[in-house]
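Please decode residue identities from the backbone states below.
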């Protein structure tokens, strides 16, 4: 049997079309079911108890001037800033997993219930709002 050379483009297309075990949040997707009414644009922070000090992250998202939602996943309560309503419990963890969050914390910029942008574990504080 002759040795077949792999077609790099075909390999790439197959890899892109196959959901990976470590699939990530996808831009443009609708948020999974959640208990709040989504405004036109909002920031969603999905975090767990083992994220460390999130003071700078909370400061950055709160200063954006958009509604902020917090999802405390993985069933261990962790604090959020005063005034931020936190969703906790098994449903919150199921929400994070349905989003395919790959790293905590994950910051999502959401518009019309769809993920506009996502930062998984590496949020720099810039939501790209062009202000």
């Amino acid at each position: 049997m002759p040795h077949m050379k792999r077609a790099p483009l075909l390999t790439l297309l197959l890899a892109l079309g196959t959901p990976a075990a470590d699939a990530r949040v996808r831009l443009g997707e609708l948020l999974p079911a959640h208990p709040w009414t989504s405004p036109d644009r909002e920031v969603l922070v999905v975090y767990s108890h083992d994220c460390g000090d999130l003071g700078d992250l909370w400061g950055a998202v709160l200063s954006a001037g958009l509604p902020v939602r917090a999802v405390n996943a993985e069933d261990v309560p962790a604090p959020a800033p005063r005034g931020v309503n936190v969703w906790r419990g098994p449903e919150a963890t199921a929400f994070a997993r349905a989003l395919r969050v790959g790293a905590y914390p994950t910051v999502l910029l959401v518009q019309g219930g769809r993920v506009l942008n996502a930062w998984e574990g590496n949020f720099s504080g810039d939501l790209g709002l062009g202000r």
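Observation: Strands lie at 41-47, 68-72, 86-88, 106-111, 114-120.
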